[in-house]
């Protein structure tokens, strides 16, 4: 005969196993449809993030760090696709989640870099392009004015 | 001495000064625009050279190479590298004609690697691979089981290599095709470039 304590432990273990089978297992098993949806959503997220980084680079931002993150995420996406093609749907979802979590915040960073680059680009245009062109015109006009002034002064001296 | 005698010197000084002040504008306006946009793709051996590429392959032994991608497209590019393997009779990607009209191999890709490269930048991907295979003496062919590439196990159970009587070897080709993402169509298009390695699959006698 089992003692009361051992009986309680045995029943608890059985209940734990039953709960594990009923609740834990379904939560970790993904079917083909769920895995496909997860991989496609992640692929779409990668494309979307790339689009944002592309725009930031076009605005003149240094996107090297963001591309490193995208490359890391891309590796997980590749593994997710491979796992899906091999019928390992749990791994596919896990890799897709990993990829997705790597991409968190990248859009905000890219947009911030884009804004900074646009501001810097505007300032650079005003100083180096407009400022330089106006400065060159001023030098020529100023030079001409000084030349006319010096010539007139000399003419006045010659008359005197 | 009058001002007119120094006229030439004066205007030379003014001109040089104006050019100096205008140099930031001139450096932008007078730069010859880029007219060629392309991608470089290369393979290097384990020593970053082009001499000791893996050729005689031993079963389950690790080999290291470097796959390089140089982006000169004028924008940060999203590439996909398709890893493929073929024997002597299976189709290779086309190598002749205009690069835009070249075709990829019709073989299925074993693995797709993504690569994001900024404009005027280079990305080098270290690749370590090993191949698991066995000799089928009855049919005198090598049967491949799997390719392990950067820790990822790839199934190759459908692949066989027949004996090359001329070369006296079992020849296999591992190659990497470059595909480029097109944001307009939201899909990858073959970029007309591939690099590969030719193997002699050695079998213990």
SSE blueprint and pairings:
The complex is a heterodimer of chains A (160) and B (205).
Chain A: H1 4-28, H2 32-58, H3 64-85, H4 89-102, H5 106-159
Helix pairs in contact in A: 2-3, 2-4, 2-5, 3-4
Chain B: H1 7-29, E1 38-44, E2 56-57, E3 63-72, E4 77-86, E5 111-117, E6 122-136, E7 141-149, E8 152-155, E9 160-164, E10 169-182, E11 187-201
Parallel strand pairs in B: 2-11
Antiparallel strand pairs in B: 1-3, 3-6, 4-5, 4-10, 6-7, 7-8, 7-9, 9-10, 10-11
Provide structural commentary.
The complex is a heterodimer of chains A (160) and B (205). Chain A is mostly helical. Chain A folds into two domains: 1-30; 31-159, no CATH class. Chain A has five helices and no strands. Chain A has helices spanning 4-28, 32-58, 64-85, 89-102, 106-159. Chain A starts with a helix and ends with a helix. Chain B has 205 residues and is mainly beta. Chain B has two domains: 1-31; 38-201, Immunoglobulin-like (Sandwich). Chain B contains one helix and eleven strands; from the N terminus they run αβββββββββββ. In chain B, strands 1, 2, 3, 4, 5, 6, 7, 8, 9, 10 and 11 form an eleven-stranded mixed sheet that branches. The radius of gyration of chain B is 27 Å and the shape is elongated. The mean pLDDT of chain B is 92. At the A-B interface, α2, α3 and α5 of A face α1, β5 and β8 of B.
CATH class identity of the largest domain in chain B:
Mainly Beta
Assign a percent range to the helix content of chain B. 10-25%
Given the helix and strand composition of chain A, which structural class is it? mainly alpha
Q: Over all CA atoms, what is the radius of gyration of chain B?
A: 27 Å
**Low-pLDDT ranges of chain B:** none
Number of helices of chain A: 5
End-to-end separation of chain B in angstroms reads 102 Å
Global outline of chain A = rod-shaped
Portion in strands of chain B: over 45%
Largest sheet of chain B: 11 strands, mixed
The structural class of chain B is mainly beta
- CATH fold name of the largest domain in chain B: Immunoglobulin-like
Strand content of chain A: under 5%
What count of helical segments of chain B does DSSP give? Answer: 1
User: Which protein chains make the most extensive interface, counting residues with beta carbons within 8 Å of the other chain's beta carbons?
Assistant: A-B, 37 and 36 residues
Question: Which H/E pattern describes the elements of chain A?
Answer: HHHHH
Global geometry of chain B? elongated
What's the overall average pLDDT of chain B, rounded?
Answer: 92
> What ranges of chain A have pLDDT less than 50 throughout 5 or more consecutive residues?
none
């Amino acid at each position: 005969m089992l003692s009361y304590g051992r009986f309680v432990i045995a029943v608890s273990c059985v209940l734990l196993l039953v709960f594990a089978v009923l609740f834990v297992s379904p939560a970790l098993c993904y079917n083909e449809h769920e895995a496909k949806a997860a991989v496609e959503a992640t692929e779409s997220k990668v494309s979307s993030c790339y689009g944002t980084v592309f725009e930031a680079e076009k605005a003149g931002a240094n996107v090297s760090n963001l591309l490193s993150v995208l490359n890391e995420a891309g590796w997980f996406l590749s593994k997710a696709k491979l796992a899906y093609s091999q019928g390992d749907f749990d791994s596919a979802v896990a890799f897709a989640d990993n990829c997705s979590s790597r991409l968190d915040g990248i859009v905000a960073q890219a947009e911030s870099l884009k804004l900074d680059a646009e501001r810097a680009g505007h300032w650079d245009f005003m100083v180096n392009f407009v400022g330089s062109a106006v400065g060159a015109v001023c030098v020529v006009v100023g030079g001409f004015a000084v030349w006319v002034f010096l010539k007139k002064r000399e003419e006045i001296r010659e008359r005197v | 001495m009058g001002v007119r005698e120094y006229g030439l010197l004066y205007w030379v000084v003014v001109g040089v000064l104006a050019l100096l002040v205008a140099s930031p504008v001139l450096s932008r306006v007078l730069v010859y625009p880029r007219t060629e946009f392309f991608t470089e793709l290369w393979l290097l051996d384990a020593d970053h050279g082009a001499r000791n590429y893996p050729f005689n392959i031993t079963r389950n032994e690790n080999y290291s190479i470097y796959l390089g991608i140089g982006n000169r497209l004028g924008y940060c590019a999203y590439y996909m590298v398709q890893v493929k393997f073929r024997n002597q009779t299976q189709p290779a990607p086309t190598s002749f004609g205009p690069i835009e009209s070249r075709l990829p191999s019709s073989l299925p890709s074993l693995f797709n690697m993504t690569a994001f490269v900024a404009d005027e930048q280079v990305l080098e991907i270290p690749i370590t691979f090993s191949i698991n295979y066995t000799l089928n003496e009855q049919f005198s062919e090598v049967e491949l089981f799997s390719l392990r590439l950067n820790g990822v196990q790839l199934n190759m159970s459908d692949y066989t290599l027949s004996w090359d009587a001329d070369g006296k070897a079992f020849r296999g080709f591992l190659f990497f095709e470059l595909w480029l993402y097109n944001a307009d169509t939201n899909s990858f298009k073959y970029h007309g470039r591939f690099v590969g390695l030719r193997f002699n699959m050695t079998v213990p006698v």
